């Protein structure tokens, strides 16, 4: 979208139309499908071949609450509450056989929601933890902590005792990265494994870098 304020600046400075066009177009959101990594776009991670809904696609997508409900088998109501209604949902699953994690390897689930505006991306990020059915799965807001460093505009992470769960928003996108499991390799199975946390952060940062 071309912002009125930007047009005024161009007119005031007497900038050429082509120069203004270049600067304005660079702020336009990317095609959401371009945010979804292919095999090894994030080193060590490949599209999980075992998920029939996503294995043969760049991403499974939905444009409505009903379509998202059909994809993720519940939970879509958490993301479709006024005033923050997604325009598009994208979902892909990844696997890594090299990350030391119990014992079948590690998995990542990626959710990307394209919102109508950056304000609505911030809104869903802020409000989703207050939704009872989401809190029942993820714990209360106090169970989350800000990531260090920050991913995107704002970000947080939680060890749910089964996975690292990272939420962030950037531009018009709200993103969730879930790395399973959050505990270390046998025989200890210690929660809060630093290596898997670092890997979850690396994956989330790779998504943010595409926005």
Task: Report how far the terminal alpha carbons are from each other.
Answer: 16 Å
Gyration radius, rounded: 19 Å
CATH fold title of the largest domain? Protein Transport Mog1p, Chain A
Low-confidence runs: 1-28
Oligomer: single chain
Order of helices and strands: HHEEHEEHHEEEEH
Give the overall shape, derived from the CA principal axes.
Answer: globular
Biggest sheet character: 8 strands, antiparallel
CATH C-level class of the largest domain is: Alpha Beta
What labels would you give this structure?
Protein Transport Mog1p, Chain A; 8 strands; 2 domains; disordered N terminus; eight-stranded antiparallel beta sheet; single chain; 211 residues; alpha+beta
What can you see in these coordinates?
- With 211 residues, the chain is an alpha+beta fold.
- Helices cover 28% and strands 22% of the residues.
- It is built from 6 helices and 8 strands.
- Strands 1, 2, 3, 4, 5, 6, 7 and 8 form an 8-stranded antiparallel β-sheet that branches.
- It is globular, with a radius of gyration of 19 Å.
- Mean pLDDT is 82; it is low at 1-28.
């Amino acid at each position: 979208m071309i912002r009125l304020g930007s047009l005024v600046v161009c007119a005031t400075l007497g900038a050429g139309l082509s120069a203004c066009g270049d600067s304005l177009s660079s702020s336009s959101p990317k095609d959401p499908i371009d945010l979804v990594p292919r095999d090894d776009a994030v080193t060590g991670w490949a599209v999980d071949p075992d998920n029939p809904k996503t294995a043969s696609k760049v991403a499974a997508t939905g444009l409505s609450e009903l379509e998202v409900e059909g994809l993720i088998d519940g939970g879509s109501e958490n993301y479709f509450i006024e005033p923050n209604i997604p325009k598009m949902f994208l979902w892909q699953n990844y696997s890594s056989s090299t990350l030391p994690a119990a014992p079948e390897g590690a998995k990542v689930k990626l959710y990307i929601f394209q919102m109508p505006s950056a304000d609505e991306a911030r809104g869903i990020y802020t409000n989703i933890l207050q939704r009872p059915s989401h809190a029942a799965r993820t714990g209360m807001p106090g169970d989350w902590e800000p990531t260090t460093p920050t991913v995107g505009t704002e970000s947080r992470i939680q060890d749910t005792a089964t996975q690292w769960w990272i939420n962030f928003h950037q531009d018009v996108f709200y993103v969730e990265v879930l790395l399973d499991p959050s505990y270390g390799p046998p025989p200890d199975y210690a929660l809060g494994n630093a290596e898997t946390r670092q890997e979850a952060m690396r994956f989330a940062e790779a998504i943010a870098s595409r926005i």
